[in-house]
C-alpha cells in the first residue's frame, strides 16, 4: 500500500481450531463456506504451526513475534511482561484505531497501555450483555452429553442461547460495530472468537447440522496408545470416558461450533464489502493452537507434541497485493505474523522479533526458507515438551524436573511421510539414527541461541 492509502488490519482468530476441521484444508464434511471463500481469495498456508500449544502464551507470541521462552509468558494464569512490545503498539503509534474484541486471554487491566489496544471488549462485556438481556447462558443452559463426556472438564452439547446471545455472534456484532465507527480512519482490530474451545456448545441451527453417524473419525482415535508418552493418559482422562459413538457426537458439536464461527466471520467479511474496505484491508484468519479432536483418544490439548494441537489454519488475504487461491506448503510460524503485518503496512516494528515476514511467500516469490519449526509447551528448566518438526519428520523431547535437575524423560520420532497420524514412535529404530541425531542437534542449537526469560514467580 502507498503512504496515501493506509492499510487496515483485520486479524480474526479462533481458539483451539484443528486445521483439519476446515473445508479449504481438505475436509469434505465440515461446512465452512466463508473461510473457504477467504482462502479462494487469498493465500492458504498448509503447514502453519503455533510456537506453544497453550492459549495465553501463544497469543502473546503472535502479538510480540517472540517465542514464549523469550517473552516470558510460559503458562495460562501467569502475567505477561509489559516491557515486551507488541505489534499493536506500533500500529497505535502510527495513528491507527486499535481494538481487541473477544477472548484476548491476557492481563489487560495490569498493563498500563493494554498492549496498544484503545478499545477492549471481552468476556466481561459479554457477560454484562447477557445479564442485561436476561438471555440464556450459552454454556449453562442447553442440552448436554452425559457428564462423563467432559473435554477439558467442560460440557459438550446444544446451547439454548441463540447466535446473538452466543460469544461467536456477540463478538462478531461488536467487530462489525467497530468497523462502522472507524470506516474513515486506519484501524487494526483483533477479533478473537472463544470457540471452538471448550465448552463445545454451538447454537442452533449449527448444533444439529451434523449427523454423528455420517462423520469420519481420525484413524488414530483408537489404536495401541503409547502410554509411555508423558501426559497422554492425563489428557485422555480430562477428556472423559469416550467410545466411538461419543467421539462422533462430540465431533458433530465441534464441527457445529466451527460452522457457527464461520457464519459470523461471513457477516464480518460482508460488512467489509459493504463499507468498501475490503480492497485496503489485510485479513488474517488463524487460531492460537489446535485441538486433539479425538486424535490419540483425547480432546482439548495437553503437554504433547502432536500435530493435532501444534498445526493451525492460516489464511491471509489482501486483494491486488497477494494472488488469489494460492496454497503454500512452506513451514510457517505464528511468530511470523507480527513482522508480516508490519512489513505489509510499511511500518517498522520493534527489535527482538524472532519471526520472519511472510511477505515473500504471500507475493509469490520463491526464496530460501526454514526447514524446521520449533514449538514448546511448559517452562524450560522445569517442565517442558519441545518439538522440532521438518516437512516429513518430527522429534519430540519431554523434559521434566527430577531431584532438582531437568532430565529428558521420553523422546518421540515420527516419519510423517509414512505415518502422518503419528501412531508409530520410531525413536528406537536404527534406520532413523542419523535423522534423529540431526533433529536433536537442531533443537539443541535452537535452545542455545533463543534467549530465555526468567521463570515466573506466580
From TrEMBL:
Pfam families: Sulfatase. GO terms for cellular component: cytoplasm. Transmembrane segments: none annotated. Keywords: Hydrolase, Metal-binding. GO terms for molecular function: metal ion binding; sulfuric ester hydrolase activity. Residues 8-346 form the Sulfatase N-terminal domain. It comes from the Bacteria. This is Sulfatase N-terminal domain-containing protein. It comes from Paenibacillus hemerocallicola.
Amino acid at each position: 500500500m502507498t503512504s496515501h492509502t493506509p492499510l487496515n488490519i483485520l486479524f480474526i482468530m479462533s481458539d483451539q481450531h484443528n486445521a483439519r476441521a476446515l473445508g479449504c484444508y481438505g475436509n469434505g464434511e465440515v461446512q465452512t463456506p466463508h473461510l473457504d471463500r477467504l482462502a479462494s481469495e487469498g493465500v492458504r498456508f498448509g503447514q502453519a504451526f503455533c510456537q506453544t500449544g497453550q492459549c495465553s502464551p501463544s497469543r502473546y507470541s503472535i502479538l510480540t513475534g517472540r517465542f514464549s521462552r523469550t517473552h516470558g509468558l510460559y503458562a495460562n494464569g501467569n502475567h505477561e511482561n509489559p516491557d515486551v512490545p507488541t505489534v499493536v503498539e506500533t500500529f497505535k503509534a502510527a495513528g491507527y484505531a486499535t481494538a481487541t474484541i473477544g477472548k484476548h486471554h491476557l492481563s489487560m487491566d495490569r498493563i498500563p497501555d493494554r498492549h496498544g489496544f484503545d478499545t477492549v471488549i471481552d468476556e466481561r462485556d459479554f457477560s454484562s450483555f447477557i445479564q442485561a438481556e436476561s438471555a440464556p447462558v450459552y454454556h449453562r443452559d442447553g442440552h448436554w452429553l452425559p457428564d462423563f463426556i467432559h473435554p477439558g472438564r467442560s460440557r459438550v452439547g446444544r446451547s439454548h442461547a441463540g447466535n446473538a446471545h452466543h460469544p461467536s455472534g456477540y463478538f462478531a456484532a461488536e467487530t462489525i460495530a467497530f468497523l462502522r465507527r472507524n470506516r474513515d480512519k486506519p484501524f487494526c482490530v483483533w477479533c478473537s472468537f472463544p470457540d471452538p474451545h471448550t465448552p463445545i456448545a454451538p447454537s442452533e441451527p449449527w448444533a444439529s447440522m451434523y449427523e454423528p453417524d455420517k462423520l469420519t473419525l481420525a484413524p488414530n482415535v483408537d489404536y495401541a496408545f503409547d502410554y509411555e508418552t508423558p501426559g497422554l493418559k492425563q489428557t485422555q482422562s480430562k477428556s472423559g470416558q469416550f467410545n466411538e459413538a461419543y467421539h462422533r457426537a462430540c465431533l458433530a458439536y465441534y464441527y457445529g461450533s466451527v460452522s457457527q464461527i464461520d457464519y459470523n466471520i461471513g457477516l464480518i467479511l460482508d460488512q467489509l464489502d459493504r463499507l468498501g474496505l475490503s480492497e485496503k484491508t489485510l485479513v488474517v484468519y488463524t487460531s492460537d493452537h489446535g485441538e486433539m479432536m479425538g486424535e490419540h483418544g483425547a480432546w482439548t490439548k495437553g503437554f504433547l507434541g502432536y500435530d493435532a494441537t501444534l498445526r493451525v489454519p492460516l489464511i491471509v488475504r489482501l486483494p491486488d497485493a497477494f494472488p488469489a487461491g494460492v496454497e503454500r506448503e512452506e513451514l510457517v510460524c505464528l511468530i511470523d505474523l507480527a513482522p508480516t503485518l508490519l512489513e505489509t503496512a510499511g511500518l517498522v516494528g520493534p527489535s527482538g522479533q524472532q519471526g520472519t515476514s511472510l511477505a515473500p511467500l504471500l507475493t509469490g516469490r520463491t526464496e530460501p526458507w526454514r526447514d524446521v519449526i520449533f514449538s514448546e509447551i511448559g517452562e524450560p528448566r522445569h517442565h517442558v515438551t519441545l518439538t522440532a518438526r521438518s516437512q516429513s519428520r518430527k522429534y519430540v523431547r519431554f523434559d521434566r524436573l527430577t531431584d532438582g535437575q531437568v532430565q529428558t524423560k521420553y523422546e518421540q520420532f515420527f516419519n510423517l511421510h509414512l505415518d502422518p497420524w503419528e501412531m508409530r514412535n520410531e525413536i528406537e529404530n536404527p534406520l532413523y539414527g542419523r535423522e534423529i541425531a540431526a533433529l536433536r542437534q537442531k533443537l539443541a542449537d535452537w535452545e542455545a541461541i533463543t534467549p530465555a526469560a526468567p521463570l515466573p514467580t506466580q
